[in-house]
Amino acid sequence: MTARSHASSALSRRRFLSTTAQMAAIWPVLGVFAAAPAGKQVKVDVCVYGGTSGGVAAAAALAKLGRSVLLVEQTMHLGGMTSGGLGWIDYKYAEWPVGGLAGAFIAQIKAAYAKEGIDTKKIGNSGWVVEPHVAEGLFDGWAKNERIEVVRGARLASVVREGRRLKRITLDKAPPDRRGAPAAEAAARGFMTVEAAMFIDCSYEGDLLAMAGVTTRGDREGREEYNESAAGLRWQKATEFAENVPAIDAYVKQGDPASGVLPLVADLKLGAVGSASPVLQAYNFRLCLVKENPIPVEAPADYDAKRYEVAGRLLAALKAAGKPVTPADFHRGPWRLLKFSPLPHGKTDVNNAGMVSMDFVGGGSERYAGANWAERAKMWHAHEDYQRGLLHFLRTDERAGDAVRAEVSKWGLPRDEFKETGGWPFQLYVREARRMVGAYVMKQSDCETPPAALADSVGLGVYSLDSHVCQRVAVEGKVVHEGGFLVRIPGPYPIPYRAITPKAQECENLLATFCVSASHVAFASMRMEPQLMVLSESAAHAADLAIADNQSVQGIDIGKLRKRLLDAGQALDGKKA
């Protein structure tokens, strides 16, 4: 059946969520359950786990195809990072088209601001800029218009497999705490059980992948594993800081190893350059700040200026070298300490800028995926506290200088964004957690020297290989920042269907669109939000085909899938329009 015939029969084929009584009536026929699971019972064609930008795109595509779909989101909001503070959407090579629902989303952003007489291109990012509440409103509109069933404040508790297939998942009700962090304890355990023919994991953490028994990893490969020049341990010379000033002393009492290393600096022996590492790139919150009537960014209750001594010594070193940080550095590249990217209505998307900035280096990102919910909540709070503390440090420390202290003091949180959490974003920027080891592993060479066309391409990657700093280490008594890189790529590259597909022997009815099958280096490009939306829409069409043709996700007709995607406006090959 074609996508058009699916859409035309959407009303007749759409099935609403089953009641407990309806499910109980069909259990004996299915012969699947020994006993009725507790909680509300739901049966749908496809369950999408993760209400990220990609999760909403997948659910919308499935609904348009006439499939019943349940969208499960851990927070109370849809859109993930795209509505959670990442106002400057990461997209390169504007001459290459982005189509499908991702393209429609960008068009809706432009149209929304055009009604106000705002040309987002003039802000400086080719129209790929959006305030958080505007992005969330568009995603909520998709869910409403497509009549998508959304369960918010819910998270995975357990799964049941039948052979190589996921049969059902059980969810706990666990609304976030008052700061937006995952609840340490669930409010209602096992409140819902979802049975589906197909599942799509669109989450940042990949919890469904892992619980389903799909092989994942959460480390950095060494250079030799995939012959990648950017892989493994990597850092600048210990004798020179990233900003081209004298190196920063790593010890509490400068020059005295006995005094111990500074806070958030690890005292460990690094392996050889290029060797594998368990440490992943750091997380942060993408803050939306304003000057007009802001909510002050209060320092954390346990604020300790000593935690920011690396920043203080950097400020002092830059001043001594004749390169003091100025407020203008926050608003133009190359940015130092803070990166302010303009959004409409006087708002900004504030991101990490350089080796010492908004990223919580040393915050344990490599532990996040495997942590229990109480530990994740603590890490979430710690990231918020670190960033609040850094802004307070820049407002108050003499080494920042009068101009920087005055400038930072003018900015605060917006009153019309993230109202439930006092203006603080509801989504932690989980840049990397798990990566699937699937049917094909994307590598650095696939991004740098790709074929112009690929037989099973289901979307394009368009961003540079971009990994943030992973750890801060004392080397020869100096502070070294390890793990960051930015490697430009010559142009868009095709992403094969195999990269979102588990190995057939591991699971036949599950696809992954953020925690894709890629090395750490390739993932550094593939992790961007537009790619998440593109791959999620493609996964939706693949899931629909698998159901229609009674196939595993690995066994669908790729030619039929690609035709569908092209008809939907997707760009599949690295060729200019």
What does this structure look like?
The chain has 577 residues and is an alpha/beta fold. The chain contains 16 helices and 18 strands. β1, α4 and β2 form a beta-alpha-beta unit. α4 runs parallel beside α15. The protein is globular, with a radius of gyration of 24 Å. The relative contact order is 0.17.
Summarize, please.
28% of the residues lie in helices and 16% in strands. The chain has 577 residues and is of the alpha/beta class.
Helicity range: 25-40%
Strand content: 15-25%
Gyration radius, rounded: 24 Å
Unreliable stretches, pLDDT < 50, 5 or more residues?
Answer: 1-36
Query: What oligomeric arrangement do these chains adopt?
Result: single chain
Distance between the termini: 29 Å
What structural class is derived from the secondary structure elements? alpha/beta
Main beta sheet strand tally, sense and closure? 7 strands, mixed
Assign an overall shape.
Answer: globular
Mean pLDDT: 90
Number of helices: 16
Number of strands: 18
Secondary-structure map:
Layout (H helix, E strand, L loop, with lengths): L2 H6 L1 H4 L6 H11 L9 E10 L3 H12 L4 E5 L26 H15 L17 H14 L3 E4 L1 E9 L2 E9 L14 E14 L5 H5 L4 E2 L5 H4 L60 E3 L19 H12 L18 E4 L5 E4 L13 H4 L4 H24 L5 H9 L24 E2 L7 H5 L8 E5 L3 E3 L3 E5 L2 E5 L2 E3 L5 E4 L13 E3 L7 H7 L2 H20 L9 H10 L10
Helix pairs in contact: 4-15, 11-12, 15-16
